[in-house]
Amino acid sequence: MGLIGFCIHYAIALVILNREISPTVGMLYPRESETREVRSLDGLWNFVKSDPTNPTQGVRDKWFLDDLSRVQDTIPMPVPASYNDITTQNDLRDHVGTVWYDRKFFVPRSWANKQRVWLRFGSVHYEAFVYVNGEMAVRHEMGHLPFEAEITNLVKYGEENRITVMCDNALIQTTVPQGKITEVSRDDGVAIVQTYTFDFFNYAGIHRSVHLYTTPLTYIEEMEITTDLAKDNNVGFVYYKVKANGTAANEAVNNLYVRVQLRNKDGAIVANETSNSDLKGVLEVQKVLPWWPYLMHPDPGYLYQLEIFLHGENNELLDVYRQKVGIRTLSWNNTSFMINGRPVYFRGFGRHEDSDIRGKGLDLALMTRDFNLLKWIGANAYRTSHYPYSEESMQFADENGIMIIDECPSVDTENFKQELLDKHKSSMEQLIHRDRNHPSVVMWSIANEPRTNQLNAGSYFQYVANHTRELDPSRPVTAAIAVSSNDDKAAKFLDVISFNRYNGWYSNPGRLDMITKRVIDEATNWHKKHNKPVIMSEYGADTVEGLHLLPAYVWSEEYQTELFSRHFKAFDTLRKQPWFIGEFVWNFADFKTAQTVTRVGGNKKGVFTRNRQPKAVAHLLRKRYFALGREVDQCNFPEDLFTYIADVGPSRNAKHDDADL
After folding, report:
1. Same domain as 567, residue 503
2. Which residue among 266, 387, 416, 573 is least enclosed by CB atoms within 10 Å?
3. Which domain holds residue 626?
4. Quick check: is 20 catalytic?
């Protein structure tokens, strides 16, 4: 290829187009009702690890046509869970490529009667191929997001059935997130090695619950809920848009309508309406109880229950679905973010879905513990770094009044090509489709630490940001940016600027005297350049639990405490400007990473240990977050916030009170 040909080829490779993305349909969370049944397929499944050098063997040999135990030796594997840490074998922990699951299940004879049967996965990482009784049911690419398929015609009623799943964890330059796979020589041959730049372990497997559920032949397929407030937040509005599908929906659209009613926490009906055939409308709620974030109101996270009754010809009841609803408003401008008309100051965390043994598998006990710790420490928000969290955790956030910056799986994004853009936009579409009805979701994050200084980054993120707004204009768009404001090409397309910076750690490690001014200057530069609200979305320091060194020294609990304190000084200076709207610690808890010489058992930046016990800095942070809550939101202090020290007597003028915070 000559120079001219090379230049033309290179120029074509740089062109990316804003192509249409196929929309997600359905995917309502499985809930029982008068017309629906739900069965869990969670439990112990059979499991086979493929040969890393021959990952497609199971497809070629059609393992899905029979029990896995008949073609390979199987081991039991819990679902939901990551498979990596379940056994004692490092070749499974570090496996690259495909694995196989299967299990048997019965479908009741009663399910054969005028209804549909669905199979739904909360998440499989990264790519899943699902077979039912040897027939392909569904394929899905993208971890951390749900997918489903109707299997009415694939199952045998009143008989035993088999479900088989092939899961592929390989990450390449066109997956979201990205990675690279190489062949590296080893003592006895060649190893398939997965590498990635993001700093968390690439756990894989069936991570969230698997459900069978039924719907009527004509059923509620989707619902979209938006809310508003008026008259000093005394009147609420719930706007609903329902989509039906099935026989009656296709053949007799004009005869369908929905009857909608809204119940308060006591079960009393506070609003109701019957729609026209367009299946949409609005409910008006007098003396409404708005959804408020934690510590902004004595009763945070107030939820109503929306009941949708789908009716057909001759008023026949076809389907029933119930959805929790929080009534609130969001608004933002160049200098503030408001909920229900009140300015919000975010105080929270970046987190991970990560725990010992289970990895990224759904763990309801751990999730409950985490929310108790969030409330104990006085946080009002977190970012779902760096991927969508479980639907159950989103529901928990709704109920507890914890605000969510909802992030798609794009992390350390680079090499901005067309195929990657299409998948990136698809990940945002799937995320918004799943989470758009959650009142806790107050912002969309389209990436974490993308390489926004690279060529093509500007147009790439302009497309992603605009696509996100088209899907949901009711929430602002952000991204956690790690390049400098002078080099970045993406921030101008965002509504809120979030930036990550590790002063005193990756930048100038050990120098506590090089933190406060640098944080102030960088946040100020971001706002001056783009005239938008600014959040510091990551700061912190790795800390070994129980390591104490005086004077403060890196990795010690004293150093983490001092580093936080220097950031607090910067934040308090910045808070005098209305455009600085939040501070997020990295990280909530210690978590596992790939093996490197800079990570001793994983990333240790947690305020809590991996088993959710506080480090020394947690108590300092708790005092700060509640002090901010007292100042900004007029909340009360917990009784155990202060430890008794001494009564020095009033005559000495040395007694301190709450104001000293």
Report:
1. yes
2. 266
3. 342-633
4. no
